[in-house]
Amino acid sequence: MPDYANAQELPTSGIFKGMIDGNARVKSGSNLEIRGMIDGDLFIEAGSKVLVSGMVEGRVINDGSDVELKGMIGR
Q1: Predicted structure pTM score
Q2: What are the C-alpha distances in Å from 11 to residues 6, 30, 34, 56?
């Protein structure tokens, strides 16, 4: 598995509407809706609650969180 320690860190709560050029990471304990676009992989740490209603160009990697996918995933 790739190292996501250097991925762009997303906010821990609220709604993310921006764009990330590369990989992104949701930290443990977050409660976030992603409406924006991630041009890479999305890594979600354990203990988070995430709704992806936007677009993730790569993979969504869930490390034990509550994740709901409604947007577009993959290329």
Answers
A1: 0.93
A2: 15, 8, 10, 16
